[in-house]
# Entry
Amino acid sequence: MRSILFLCVFCLLPAGAARAAGPDHLATHGAWSVFVAGEGDSKVCYIGALPETSEGDYTRRDPTSVSVSQRPGKKSFDVVQVVAGYTYKARSEVTATVGSDTFTLFTVDDSAWTRDARTDASLVKAMRAGLELVVKGTSSRGTLTVDTYSLKGFTAAHRESRAACGLE
# Structure
């Protein structure tokens, strides 16, 4: 399972030095793995997980994942990204729910993000306190999918990722 996560999350890295060097796997905490790639201004520290369950009426789907990245050289922190494993319906939105908190994400191709850093911070805060993350999205073919991620180990992985980038 870790090698699948490595491949999924590795695809999320920007082109250039961080990607050329490849990520180093630092640790796994529960369902979440911690990675670091690059150095200096191109250093990226991130955590990622695969869903515990995936539901939807589809016949084929590429791997799906959620990640949270830190890019201190770019002043970018706690950026949440969902990779669906398919192309989202154009101009659609994705919901990410943790407990009673629901967040709306925008989509581009096969990925979804929050609209701003404040929402990222609120989502990460909810993930640190929650038990599971439920992500609902619609494919370009109109198929609704529901992916459920365990948040077991999220807080420890998040803390380690931030520390690896000198943020804790």
